[in-house]
Design goal:
Length: 1217
């Protein structure tokens, strides 16, 4: 065993951590006295002295005091030798100073030794230089390289010229240069080997946003190449092939005739087309004549030179060339998306499809798969890593039902201000929408702010979603019919991505949590015309004076992004006129991007100042007149009879300012057909704001929250019975299915003498797949029965194993025979026995629980749950029963089951919050109660519950708020009686309780057995209703089995409230619990003889009968029991009546009562035992044996009664022999 460290909290070299940490080196205490005492003082351990075996591990020493180097020795010759040490050792003066498992103030790191000034300056310089280099390298990615390796095509690359060269150019924010011209050959792959590089500043968010949102463009151009004259002569010989007319016209005509069935006169059409060409081409003919004349002049001047050159070209064709003017034309472009770099890749390779920029004629068209492709490799010198970052993608699809005011001649721009860290906001702008009236089809999304190009060359790889079912409709009407109409619309179909760092992501999430909406601005102005007359498409924020504009907004409801696991939403929102106040209150937009309030206010301030200046100039005369009148008033005031002069300057104060005008509300935009204008927007995050919780994580959280019991504990009482019923039911279903298959087998397959029918039928079942289904079903059912019926834990020898196998076989075969016999007797239709109604089972369970038979009550509650496991009320009833038995853990699990079946169950949420509060989980309890009040806003008892909860955790603000809400809904009409409120308990009644808010809540708590909450609620009513407070406290103490305290509270109620049947019945129940039977009988008689006794006195009759029987009055006891059997029959009442008849030796009456009890509960072993005893006394051996088998099957637990049955059975068998 390795030595353990003696420092408190350290687990070095313990078995629990050896598997992960391994062996940790330890050191013994030093022998020097001073250093020994230093070690003891350093270790935070009071009144402790180390022994000779005490050690301290390596974790508690500074690394500089531990040596792992070689130890140096000097040999006899004086030479230095080094030998490796097998163990670590401490340097002189070392002592333990680091204690990671203890508070930080107990650890004292010793000071470093002072170095020489020159050495310190050198280290500082090197460290600063290293940090500077590292910082510079992090800011700029020096090598951002785009490498184009090759161009490939399945067929010959389509050349635009007789001899063509290909050139590739890369553009990203600027022209990055192009590749050298490469001749096009008939090879499938053309090597290009072109690279372009640029730099990116990582700390500049604008550059990062541009990198993530905009692609690099590769432009593929063709240049007319130079060639050898001999090749030209070869081309001239094939001039007839080149001069053959194109067949595009014929092919179009043939297609037209094939579709319409009409014939077209091709000759006349060609003649007219040629005539048009001749008429239209006069200018071209003139140019050709001029060119020919110029060529003739040149040829006359230098005939000899031409002949010489021709001769030389024939002799040396490889050296001489003919100079021809080169022309170039863009063939196609492709876009490079840099998004893989933000996923952590330092390089990626991609094959891009070159999309032609011009549409081709039918004879020049190339299949999509045969389009040329280009291979591109993008690499950077270091990975782009941003901790806790996210990528926001905003897609604006289209604006529908636009008014006629929006025309193609207008300029449109959409802007969304995305919250970033602090108060900084980043604008996302999208411009250049397409004005169209056609129905939109599913296409690819476009890059932001790009013009429409042929063959969708400006599109991304992201597809538009054609599904309309996933659109969250925020418009008042159904938008689906509008999507297919041929009406004007603005089609954006653009995607804009933004990088959200950790602070930006938290700010964006906080914005959604607070405002739940994001304001989207839209600005429309007339397009400006450039000097050349072409219209500019890029939006210009500098608007001309008095230029008309339209300012709109859209409020995007992003609350769905707060749901766990949701990272994408698609919204349809109405378009409204812009309002500063609504954008601020609802969308959190502090200011408009297009029309900021600062500029607007400044302009308004200037106008107001000019008006005030004019008013001052024009009002000087009025001021003078007013001054004169004031002087005259002053003189007049000094006359006789006047009081002292008024020296108040109140009139000189400025006038009260006018109230600011109310802001103009926004208006929803409609088109001329009164259809609402709306926009479809999609917003997606790379990772959701609230992470998706997996099933395993939920199970772990539930285990921590519920503190579930070990799996070994039995959770179902009737497991064995259920397993047996399952086995029998499986056998029955298999037999029925075999009969159906046999009928089909006889019709399809003719009997044969060569093979038996049984073997052929088995093969038929195997072929149909039924045989395997039978085997798996019977295996599961038999395994369940064996596991619950037999135990193999105590088997110690082979003989016991063989006995177990034989017992299992006998059990399975006997149960199978029982099921088969029932089917045969009923002609394959098993007898349908009606089960007990669920409401009656609930009454039986409450009766059994009140009479102290917890096991029987538990069985009744579980039978209800087995009847319908998805009923939340059944789980809640079982939870209340478990709380009454003080099994809070099982109750908590049952409430969880109830909320799983019905998450909006108000009593389940209330009970869950109360149990969590008692467990000390305040935050979870508050969450449950707040969810309860969100669903039940007018429920008075819920607000009182929230008030009491805040009172428990001492939250005054919450107490005031919840109490105000409770008072607000106190005068509301009482809600309809629900599951809990309409059922009274057998012990007490709420009819005499006041209907105040705290009494109503206390009654609910008492029905839910929330005893502490009952006391908190009644504490608010002590002074106003002292008697009824004691009445409910008595019932509360009775359920808590505090019978003396319950009796005291009942006496207080009787003293202050007076004699009442309900108070008297509770008084009698308390006396019965204290075994004071005579007093209890007297109380029950007073209640039963009262004229105003309540209807529900079932428990009074039962306890009164029990008291009479205990006192020896069996006849009176039987009378009260029969009254219960008349008004509220139950298995217990009929069993008690049968027992009283049996005591009086009235066997036939007893048998009748036991039979009635058995009809209501045929699974009670006690009832079967009494029936068996009655049949034995009546000398019915067969009936007694059947009843005895049922006694054994239902596990009768009364050993004395079972022994009596065995003796009686033995006596009857001996007599019959």
């Amino acid at each position: 065993m390795p030595p353990k460290c003696c420092v408190p909290g350290c687990k070095s070299n313990y078995k629990s951590v050896m598997a992960t940490e391994g062996y940790i080196a330890v050191f013994k205490f030093p022998k020097e006295d001073d250093l020994h005492k230093e070690w003891i003082r350093s270790i935070p351990r009071d009144r402790w002295e180390p022994t000779k075996n005490s050690v301290v591990c390596l974790k508690h020493f500074e690394p500089k005091y531990v040596s792992d180097k070689m130890e140096t020795y000097r040999s006899a010759t004086g030479e230095t030798q080094q030998f490796p040490r097998s163990k670590l050792f401490l340097l002189p003066g070392a002592k333990p100073t680091i204690f990671p498992n203890l508070p930080k103030y107990l650890s004292a790191v010793p000071l470093n030794t002072r170095k020489e000034p020159e050495q310190r300056r050198k280290e500082i310089f090197e460290r600063n230089q290293k940090e500077l280099d590292s910082w510079l390298n992090q800011d700029v990615i020096n090598s951002f390289e785009v490498f184009v390796s090759q161009l490939k095509s399945k067929k010959d690359y389509p050349g635009l010229y007789a001899v063509s060269d290909i050139s590739t150019k890369c553009t990203y924010r600027e022209d990055l240069g192009g590749s050298d011209p490469i001749p096009i050959t008939d090879e499938e792959r053309i090597p290009i080997d072109y690279s372009a590089s640029f730099q990116i500043d990582v700390n500049n968010m604008k550059e990062l946003d541009h990198l993530i949102s905009n692609p690099a463009t590769l432009t593929v151009s063709q240049i007319s190449g130079s060639f050898d004259p001999q090749l030209y002569e070869q081309l001239v010989t094939n001039e007839e092939v080149l001069q053959t007319p194109t067949k595009s016209y014929d092919s179009v005509v043939s297609i037209y005739e094939a579709i319409t069935g009409q014939k077209v006169d091709v000759g006349s059409a060609r003649g007219s087309s040629r005539g048009k060409k001749r008429g239209d081409g006069k200018d071209s003919d003139k140019k050709e004549k001029k060119d020919k004349a110029a060529k003739d002049k040149k040829s006359k001047k230098s005939k000899s030179s031409v002949s010489a050159s021709s001769a030389s070209t024939k002799g040396k064709s490889g050296k001489s060339e003919v100079s021809i003017a080169q022309t170039s034309e863009v063939y196609g472009i492709c876009m490079i998306d840099f998004i893989p770099l933000f996923y952590g890749k330092s390089s990626f390779r991609e094959t891009l499809l070159i999309k032609p920029t011009k549409k081709s004629l039918d004879h020049q068209m190339i299949p999509y798969k045969n389009h040329p492709k280009i291979t591109v490799t993008v690499s950077i010198d270091q990975e782009l890593y941003f901790k806790d970052s996210n990528i926001l993608s905003l897609t604006v699809e289209s604006i529908y039902n636009i008014p006629e005011l929006m025309t193609p001649n207008q300029s449109y721009v959409i802007c969304a201000m995305i919250p970033m860290e602090g108060s900084h906001r980043v604008p996302i702008q999208l411009t250049n929408p397409l004005y169209t009236t056609t129905t939109l089809s599913a296409t690819n999304k476009c890059w932001p702010n790009t013009q429409a190009m042929a063959n969708e060359s400006n599109t991304t790889k992201y597809k538009m979603n054609p599904d309309t079912t996933n659109i969250i409709n925020k418009v008042d009407t159904d938008i689906v019919p509008f999507l297919g109409e041929e009406t004007p619309k603005l089609q954006f179909n653009m995607i804009k991505r933004n990088l959200l760092l950790a602070d930006g992501m938290s700010e964006f999430a906080a914005h959604i949590k607070v405002h739940r909406r994001l304001a989207l601005e839209m600005f429309m102005t007339t397009k400006k015309k450039s000097s050349t007359g072409s219209q500019t498409s890029i939006f210009d924020t500098k608007r001309a004076k008095n230029q008309p504009f339209l300012h709109l907004m859209v409020l995007l409801d992003l609350a769905a992004l707060l749901y766990p696991g949701v990272s994408r939403i698609r919204l349809a929102c109405p378009v409204r006129t812009f309002s500063y106040d609504e954008a601020l209150k609802l969308g959190g937009l502090t200011d408009s991007y297009f029309l900021p309030t600062s500029k607007k206010e400044a302009k308004e301030g200037k106008d107001a100042g000019a008006k005030e200046a004019k008013a001052e100039k024009g009002g000087k005369k009025d001021k003078a007149a007013s001054s004169k009148s004031s002087k005259s008033n002053k003189k007049g005031s000094k006359g006789k009879g006047s009081d002292a002069p008024d020296k108040s300057m109140k009139n000189l104060l400025p006038a009260k300012p006018e109230p600011p005008p109310e802001p103009e509300p926004s208006l929803q935009v409609y088109n001329e057909d009164k259809k609402p204008c709306f926009i479809i927007v999609e917003l997606e995050l790379l990772t959701p704001i609230m992470p998706k919780e997996e099933v395993e994580d939920l199970q772990d959280k539930l285990y921590d929250l519920l503190q579930a019991q070990p799996e070994g504990a039995p959770k179902v009482v009737l497991t064995q019975c259920l397993a047996k019923d399952l086995y029998k039911q499986t056998i029955s279903e298999i037999i029925r299915d075999i009969n159906k298959h046999y009928a089909a087998f006889v019709q399809q397959v003719m009997p044969s003498k060569q093979f038996s029918i049984a073997s052929r039928f088995v093969k038929y079942l195997q072929k149909m797949g039924a045989y395997q289904k039978y085997v798996s079903s019977i295996t599961k059912a038999a395994t369940s029965l064996v596991n619950n019926k037999f135990s193999s834990d105590k088997l110690t020898n082979p003989k016991e194993n063989l006995d177990l196998i034989s017992d299992v076989f006998v059990q399975l075969v006997s149960e199978m025979h029982d099921a088969v016999n029932k089917l045969i007797c009923s002609k394959l239709e098993p007898p349908q026995t009606e089960g007990i109604p669920v409401d009656e089972v609930y009454f039986y369970a409450k009766e059994a629980a009140q009479m102290g038979n917890a096991e029987l009550a538990n069985r009744y509650f579980m039978e209800r749950i087995c009847e319908n496991q998805k009923n939340a009320d059944y789980w809640l009833d079982y939870a209340i029963f478990q709380v009454e038995l003080n099994n809070t853990d099982i109750a908590f699990e049952c409430v969880q089951k109830a909320l799983t079946a019905d998450p909006n169950h108000k009593y389940g949420l209330l009970m869950m919050g109360a149990l969590l509060s008692e467990k000390g989980m305040k935050e979870n309890a508050e969450t449950c109660l707040l969810n309860l009040m969100v669903q039940e806003q007018k429920w008075l008892e819920g607000w009182v519950t929230l008030h009491i909860f805040y009172e428990m955790i001492e939250n005054p603000a919450g107490m005031d708020m919840s109490l105000e809400m409770a008072q607000k809904y106190a005068d509301e009409p009482a809600p309809e009686s629900d599951y809990i409120s309409k059922i009274d308990d057998l012990l007490w009644s709420e009819d005499i309780c006041p209907k105040t808010k705290f009494f109503r809540a206390a009654c609910i708590y008492l029905k839910l057995r929330l005893f502490n909450w009952v006391e908190y609620a009644l504490a608010h009513e002590t002074q106003s209703n002292y008697a009824m407070v004691n009445y409910l406290l008595a019932a509360n103490c009775y359920y808590k089995k505090l019978y003396p305290h319950a009796l005291e509270h009942v006496k207080e109620t009787e003293n202050y409230y007076g004699i009442d049947c309900r108070v008297g019945s509770l008084y009698g129940h308390c006396l019965m619990a204290l075994e004071r039977y005579e007093e209890a009988r007297d109380q029950f008689h007073h209640v039963l003889e009262a004229y105003n006794r309540p209807k529900n006195i079932h428990l009074v009759n039962l306890n009164c009968a029990l008291a009479e029987e205990t006192l020896g009055n069996d006849q009176e006891a039987r009378k009260f029991i029969l009254l219960s059997c008349k008004y509220n029959p139950s298995p217990y009442t009929w069993l008690r009546a049968g027992q009283l008849y049996f005591k009086q030796n009235d066997l036939l009456s007893a048998e009748e009562c036991f039979s009635e009890a058995n009809l209501r509960d045929n699974r009670s072993a006690e009832i079967w035992a009494h029936l068996c005893l009655v049949n034995l006394r009546l000398d019915r051996e067969n009936e007694a044996m059947l009843c005895y088998n049922q006694v054994l099957q239902n596990n009768f637990s009364d050993k004395e009664f079972l022994a009596l049955l065995n003796e009686e059975l033995k006596t009857v068998l001996q007599c019959n022999e």
